[in-house]
Design a protein that fits this description.
Elements (H helix, E strand, L loop, with lengths): L4 E6 L2 H15 L11 H11 L6 E7 L2 E10 L17 H4 L6 E9 L8 H10 L6 E7 L3 H9 L3 E6 L8 E7 L2
Parallel strand pairs: 4-5
Antiparallel strand pairs: 1-2, 2-3, 3-4, 5-7, 6-7
Amino acid sequence: MTGEFQLRHHTDPAAIRDVLLDVYAEVYAAVIHEPFNTRKRFAQRLDGHVTGPRWEAVVGYDAAEPVGYIYGCALAPGSKWWADLEPPVIDAEFTAETSQRTLAIFELMVRKPWRGTGAAHAIHEELVTTRLEQRSSLAVDHEHPRVRAMYERWGYRYVGAERPFPDAPLLDVMVRDLR
């Protein structure tokens, strides 16, 4: 990094939509031809994600260059986030959502030139430490154990696995207490 690393919060997804899509396309370039990973499918998922309560993104910049980003929202009462976990989470208290309890992190990605620099951790911490929720939850591709291990170092614990769409990869769902 050049020393001009900045973290910017955004609550208007339309203002940064192109940045989110462009960074996604670069990060997923090797698999963007796969149906689940196309830019169009990601844009559709993004359109759903931004409708959640208190949606927010943090974008990291090295000078004017976007490094990567994270985004998420609060889980609303009745959220399906926990519904399809294997093994099932049967603890009703654990899965009860209030729009104040859980920050669902949908995406965290960093462009290749900035991987291994601490940028991902800085971007992540900037979001989770400024939120009012009690915990955060994210899902990581089961086929990426190094990424899962990184999240474990950041304080996340595994709670189950899910496949949110028939053509999606198997995802390990993780939770971290924030308070």
